[in-house]
Amino acid sequence: MTPLRPKTAELTRRRFVSDAATVAAMSCVAPPLLWGCQAASSNAASAARNTDAMDQALERMSGLALLTNHGPMAAEALIALGRAEQVAAWVEGYKRRFTSPYPAAYRAVTRANWREALGDARREADWVEFMSRELKEAAWPQVVGQWASTLAPGLSAAAAHGLIRTAHAVRSLQAKETELRRRELAEGLGYWAARYQPLPDAPSGKPGGLKPAEALARVPHLPDEKRMRGSIDTGLRSLNQLPAFAQVADLIALPTEAAPFLSELTETFAAVYVRHVQARNAIVLVHAVTGTTALRSLLPYLSPSATRSAQRSGWQLAAAIYAVYGDGPTNPLPAAKEIKRDDLIDRAVASGDEHAIKFTEACLREYALNPKTVYLQAARDAVERFR
Q1: Which of 133, 288, 330, 365 could pair covalently with 269 via S-S, beta carbons 3.0-4.6 A apart?
Q2: Mean pLDDT over the full length of the chain
Q3: 21 and 69 assigned to the same domain
Q4: Helices assigned H by DSSP within the chain
């Protein structure tokens, strides 16, 4: 096999098993929000129903258009929230929204031409087929490690949906390996590659040494008149008209330990959501949290150098969303009140909204690792706003 990526991204099965076991053990210290903990806290019949629910959801959604398809992600989030019994009905309702066909093949992606195909949205289906072939020739953890490393500089692809969909697929494969779940991983990675979108970056070689919350004050805002209207990725392309943004990625210090840094990052942008959310930017600000949370699911499969690159790109993505969509009035901090986990989940499910479901799951997962009230405040706003 001709190597496509640096050897440092290679992952042996032995290292995968060791790293995954470590992550599962660390996660289970917190409330049972992750796949591994969910299974550990349920009886065998319940665990089997959960895994069956995911495969049934993927089978029902087979053939849906890649663009804007949040279905597999929300289904996996519902199961992670302990609501596997809600998945089938939710999927059937969600499917009725789709009228666009699955994209047609355009020009095959191969090991000889994949670099020129990066970011070519016409080749979505071709990228998915390429990733499917990759997953037939190597274990899925190895494929994730190699391609997440390669695609990290463009993780803002489609408002980070390629990254987020890949991360949800990884979590479902951690629970159970099936052909449907490998196909879903191929769709996540293929979508990420087809929509690959690097942000303006001019590395100085001298990182600023700031924490994310400190660096936020140094992020320039894009003037409204320069903002390109349309999708989120179109809005992010407007940053090419803001030369100062190219230095933003270097504002932060990248620590040796990735997990605490991701907690700082998600806490910072949950606070950005609470302080800056308005009707016009709510969906966009959600992605600064769900996108950076998604990186956590990929950590066991990344080399140390790839982990640092992914952390840097995760900060850059969230900062880009803030630069384009985080201006305007600042909301007062919500009044302190008790926010119950089960109530948030109930409200997210009742809303039926895919963003409310995914955001609530991400906020509760981060809260379990870093119990700061701002995650609960952000989720509470979203379940009310998106219903």
Answers
A1: 288
A2: 87
A3: yes
A4: 13-27, 35-40, 44-60, 71-80, 87-95, 114-117, 124-137, 140-151, 157-175, 179-194, 212-215, 232-237, 258-276, 282-298, 304-325, 341-351, 354-369, 373-385
Task: Count the neighbouring beta carbons within 10 Å of the beta carbon of residue 180.
Answer: 17
SS3 155: strand
In one-letter notation, the amino acid at residue 77 is A
Last residue of a domain, one of 62, 95, 128: 95
Record the tokens describing residue 92, joined without a space: 């059937």
Residue 318 belongs to some domain of the structure: no
Q: If phi over 0 gives left and psi between -120 and 50 gives alpha, with beta otherwise, what is residue 255? A: beta
Domain ranges, residue 190: 114-194
Q: pLDDT tens digit string along 51-89?
A: 689 999 999 998 888 767 899 999 999 999 999 999 999
Is residue 158 situated within a structural domain?
yes
- Structure pTM? 0.86
Looking at this protein, which amino acid is placed at residue 295? L
SS3 readout for 9-27: HCCCHHHHHHHHHHHHHHH
